[in-house]
Each structure stands twice: as C-alpha cells, then as structure tokens.
Amino acid sequence: MTDLSEASWPMAQPRSDNSVRAATVADLAALLELERAGFPVLEQWSEQSWRSELTEPALQVLIIGTDPLLGAIALRIAGDDVELDRIVVHPRARRSGIARTLINNALDGHRAAEKMILEVWTGNAAAIALYRSFGFTELINRRDYYGPGRDAVIMSLPIQDHRRVQDHRAGEVRA
Prior knowledge:
Blueprint: E1 20-22, H1 28-38, H2 47-55, E2 59-64, E3 71-78, E4 81-89, H3 98-109, E5 115-121, H4 125-134, E6 137-142, E7 152-158, H5 159-174
Parallel strand pairs: 4-5
Antiparallel strand pairs: 1-2, 2-3, 3-4, 5-7, 6-7
Keywords: Acyltransferase, Transferase
GO molecular function, one term: acyltransferase activity, transferring groups other than amino-acyl groups
Domain N-acetyltransferase: 18-160
C-alpha cells in the first residue's frame, strides 16, 4: 500500500528552475493550498485576503516554486516604507533558503523605500532569527496582539542597510 500522508512526501528543495516571480490572480488556488499547508486553520488568511493582496495596487505578492508553490511573501507599499504582511513557506521546504530568497527579492525590488517593517509572533524564534540575520531590529512589542498570551514584536530594517550589506558581499565575491 502506498503511503500518501504528508509525512511521506519528499523534502522540497529549491532548484534552479524555482525563480521568484510576481503572483497573479491565476495563482490564487495555489496560494490557498500553500496557506493551508503553512498555517494552522485559525491563523490562515482567507481567500478574500489573498485576492486583495493580488489585486490592490499598493499590494504585491512574490512567489517561488511551481506545482506546488514553495513559498510566498505579501508586501504592502505604505508611503516610503514596505510592510512585510505575510510570508509562508511550505512545511516540506522550510530551512532550505526559500524565505531568505523571498525576502532578498522583496528588499532588492524596493530599493527606493526607506525601510521594511514587519510584525512577528514573539514565539516564532526561527522567524525572528531569520529577520535578525538580515539586520532587522526590534522596535516595540504588542501585548496580546495575536490573542491572549500571544505577543507580537514589530521589527524594522532600513533598506539602505540591506543595500550596504549586499554591496559588501558582492565586493567579496569579486575579490
């Protein structure tokens, strides 16, 4: 008998054909599938939330992978800032560089912005460590933001700092 449980799926790995691209409404079903795989039911965004992310002019969704999607990042342009509203990586693709690739693409695509801002549950140590590795710093805590006992931390990264690090790394590669 073939085991079709999620635990039997092979680990998804980023491949050279998994480039980052802007999502469209045609990707909505795949985004909803990724959302269901990536978050518990009570934390999932609705179809309408994702549809808004795909259709409103100040919002942008970047995706990576095809059949299935491996990851997505939702961004909001707010004046001179870019807000990271959502990032989701398929559970089988976590710790493979998908989130890092999406964040780098988002930062590179918004070089004219002053800073990127995000909020994250304080209990999500892996996400906080990832954001800190980019240079994000904690601004404030929001008590019970995600419900009783589930605080959020607001983090920020001046995009100029990201550019400086990227330029430095590019110089190391050329040297």
